[in-house]
Every structure is written in C-alpha cells, then in structure tokens.
Design a protein that fits this description.
Blueprint: H1 15-27, E1 41-45, H2 50-55, E2 66-69, E3 86-90, H3 91-100, H4 105-120, H5 125-135
Helix pairs in contact: 1-4
Length: 136
C-alpha cells in the first residue's frame, strides 16, 4: 500500500548509527578525563545476553540499555589490565527508551556514555545519582 497521506518513518537507527553517536559522545568528554579513555571499546548489541541478565538478576532485557565492563581506573594494575575496557550499548532497549521519552537519541546515548564512563572511573550508580541530583 502506497498512501502518500501516511507519514514516512524511514528506518530505525542501525547498530552503526548508535556506534557513531556513542563515539561522538565519548569524544566530547573533556580532559583530563578523556586522557583515560582512548582504549575503551564500544560494542553495540541488540540485547544483553541471557548470561548477563542472570548475573545482574534482571528478567526483562529492555531494562538494561548499557553496561561498562572492565577494571575501574583506580583499581587497575598492569597485571590486571589484560582485557580491554568496554562499553556495551543495547540497541533494542535504547530504541524503546527513545520512543518512550521526549529525549533525542543523541541525548540518551550521551547520558548513557557519561554514566558508563563514570563506572570506568569507579563511581557507583548511587554516586552518579548524587552528582546528578546535586547539579540540578
């Protein structure tokens, strides 16, 4: 059916689109923090896998939009730094959040990247919530 009165929605942003947005957000983090970020790997997956959901005790895969995996800066030693630090973005949960909020996809991904970089620096979710609340 080709009805020109219906809006055209195009295509949902791809994994490559999310990757570009995430890299732009990571590149916008200022020095001196940026000095600790050049080796972080960004990986976009459709959903968190079952193993991660079990580990985090989460039933709904839409409840996790991103994850930092690595050794926080203050805890690392040369001996421990064998795996790269990674930030995972989960495409389907991110797109669902985007559809359900009035935020742009860029805003959502920037917030997520900043949050996961906070974990890279050893901050907990509670620490970051406190900082965000204090900034308001």
């Amino acid at each position: 059916m080709n009805d020109s009165s219906l809006p055209s929605f195009g295509h949902a942003p791809s994994a490559a689109d999310l990757d570009r947005l995430a890299r732009a957000a990571l590149a916008s983090i200022p020095a001196p923090f940026a000095d600790h970020l050049p080796h972080i790997v960004i990986q976009v997956e459709e959903f968190p896998d079952d193993e991660l959901l079990d580990e985090m005790e989460v039933e709904d895969p839409f409840d996790i939009t991103g994850l930092y995996q690595g050794i926080p800066v203050g805890e690392r030693t040369q001996a421990l730094a064998t795996q790269p630090d990674m930030i995972f973005l989960f495409r389907q949960p991110l797109l669902a959040e985007w559809c359900e909020t009035d935020q742009t996809l860029e805003e959502i991904i920037t917030h997520l990247i900043v949050h996961e970089v906070g974990h890279h620096f050893g901050l907990s979710d509670d620490d970051m919530e406190y900082i965000e609340d204090s900034a308001d």
